[in-house]
Specification:
single chain; about 300 residues; alpha+beta; two-stranded antiparallel ribbon; about 20% helix; about 40% strand; globular
């Protein structure tokens, strides 16, 4: 039994519609990708009895072209017409920083109309946690430089306003990105409005010193998302070497979450995620500590 082709109100089949379709009817925004690559870096202490200090670090590139020439930004660039967004993210990350073959996950899509001074640009951001010791970062393509920046994220103020059938809650965050040569700072306001069953959220940059585009918003959002993911996934193990102590692992959790954790509760929490080995640390000045590895067979 022959089926009749499905036609639209103009009597066209799908094949006929596509043959006659005018792709120029709608204006086309450009699409870019931006990557937030985090690591935790050790800072050796003079006192050998102390554990190495650690800090959350973010990889940035210095722009070698207009707009924002000479300012720092997240690695990224435009998506080509014949590649997927994920392929574009990996290509841009490699050409600008020499980083390849890492796990990244999509973070958020940024679409404010005037977020790029060149044209209408929609950006899809990606996030990754990496062990920096396995990478060889080098600036390339249109990046004049590439460097790691220590991230400081502070809640500065909270303001709640009561509304009819709800409230408006504004939080202001101060973000500092710093290394030995450069300090970048900025303030982000995040407002959540609840009225009845309707909940809306909006973020805006109050001020930004030295960071291009709306990338300060991306950094703020990524830190909040990262803290959430650390609580309910094993993503943090991407930061760890093959063997580590439980104290080292706890310190990495504390750096990302921005708070101290009780050792006993922490060890219960991660018990199923780690496997005990027969190896111990051999650092001079420290009592040997048992080494653990990530439990890849965790159910």
């Amino acid at each position: 039994m022959n089926k009749q082709p499905i036609t639209d109100a103009q009597g066209q089949t799908e094949e006929q519609f596509l043959q006659n379709y005018d792709a120029g009817v709608y204006e086309r925004p450009s699409v870019t990708v931006d990557m937030l690559i985090f690591t935790v870096m050790e800072q050796e202490q003079n006192n050998y009895r102390k554990l190495s200090e650690k800090s959350l670090q973010l990889l940035l590139i210095k722009r070698g072209q207009h707009p924002y020439l000479g300012q720092w930004a997240l690695p990224g660039g435009f998506v080509s017409i014949n590649e997927s967004i994920e392929d574009a993210a990996r290509r841009e990350l490699y050409t600008e920083t020499n980083i390849d073959n890492i796990y990244m996950e999509q973070l958020y899509t940024w679409g404010d109309v005037e977020r790029d001074p060149r044209m209408r640009v929609i950006s899809c951001s990606y996030m990754a946690l990496v062990d920096r010791t396995t990478l060889n970062v080098q600036a390339g393509d249109d990046a004049a430089d590439a460097a790691w920046f220590e991230v400081t994220h502070q809640l500065m103020a909270t303001n709640r306003t009561e509304l009819e059938q709800g409230y408006e809650l504004e939080k202001r965050f101060r973000i500092t990105l710093q290394n030995e040569q450069t300090t970048l700072t900025g303030t982000v306001s995040h407002t959540e409005t609840v009225q009845g069953h309707v909940r809306k959220a909006h973020s805006r940059i109050i001020e930004s010193e030295g960071l291009a585009f709306d990338h300060l918003l991306m950094v703020q959002y990524a830190i909040e998302r990262l803290r959430g993911k650390v609580e309910y996934t094993d993503i943090i193990f991407n930061l760890m070497p093959p063997l580590f102590t439980l104290s080292e692992l706890q310190r990495v959790y504390e750096i990302i979450l921005g708070k101290e954790l009780l050792a006993a509760a922490f060890r219960r929490k991660i018990a199923d995620s780690v496997t005990e080995t027969d190896e111990y640390t051999k650092d001079a000045g420290h009592r040997p500590s048992r080494l653990y590895r990530y439990n890849v067979n965790k159910e």
